[in-house]
């Protein structure tokens, strides 16, 4: 096999699958643990949101350091730190999870940037969208089995099962990670190249001044907020209503993401143009999915699971489409740092989905919270529409 499905890249995808396996389990365990201890949705949201909030803060610096030192060197350092973070979950209770989530979030900032920038640099232009889509697919695949495994661990009531699982994942991830390399890199940066471009403060300003980055970041931020609210509170929502199965919902969502990213990977635009109706359709999926999820409080179990499928379809297409688009239109001298800022917006959105939506659920209800998510998705339908056939590329 060649291109995005060649052996070197398959090893990167396997590493991605192993790395994100722990989080697919913890996303269910932590809310259930917090609820059993009497924690509020606000507290649970803060603990869950600490993970990607930390990732968001460190993304731009991760892009700069990777551009200077290379993705593989940074990857091997963070795998050691990630192993230490997973060990914290085996030796502490809820009080230590906040610190563990922050440490894990720091690792994820460098991990995902290392792999995605490595994939972008190593693949020819026509294969970029496939490579990013396969990476995203493997990051999501653990979500198919992870929730059911988490429920089994929780129901067993034995902390030893969680400890064994986290240690096993840390060891396997380290073994695969240290044997992985990326061949055929393009645009090898010289030491200090990051300083020859724009400074970090100047790069931050590009979030507003660069129309491509601004539009993509707003869409990703809002969509990720909805994704974060689903990931964090679906287990508690299903438990409160007594109808619907959270693990089945998350499995359907993740399964749809995996299937769509594989089957539709060649349909994701990879030409550097803004495909307006493609983006409008995705945001429509998010609005409809959120509304369907809100029906669970009224006994709408079938609509609840339908929402999982629509949410998974939107999640499968949005991120690789926007990432690939930006890889073409961002100036090459600033690309790594600006891509880090964009991915940081995705992290911030997921984090806000936990931190902001938790208090809203406390003062109202889960159903109203998901209705609000549907409203946000509907607003983004209008924002995604672009009358012109495509935005012009920025001069590199």
Automatic annotation (TrEMBL):
Organism: Paenibacillus gansuensis
Keywords, comma-separated and alphabetical: Membrane, Transmembrane, Transmembrane helix, Transport
Pfam short name (any one): MFS_1
Compartmental location: Cell membrane
InterPro entries hit by this protein: MFS, MFS_dom, MFS_Exporter, MFS_trans_sf
Transmembrane found in the keyword field: yes
Membrane topology: Multi-pass membrane protein
Name of this protein: Staphylopine family metallophore export MFS transporter CntE
Phylogenetic placement of the source organism: Bacteria, Bacillati, Bacillota, Bacilli, Bacillales
Primary subcellular site in the record, as a coarse category: membrane
Keyword Metal-binding belongs to the record: no
SUPFAM superfamilies given in the database record: MFS general substrate transporter
Membrane spanning residue stretches: 12-32, 44-62, 74-92, 98-120, 132-154, 160-178, 218-239, 245-264, 276-296, 302-326, 338-361, 367-385
Positions of the Major facilitator superfamily (MFS) profile domain: 8-389
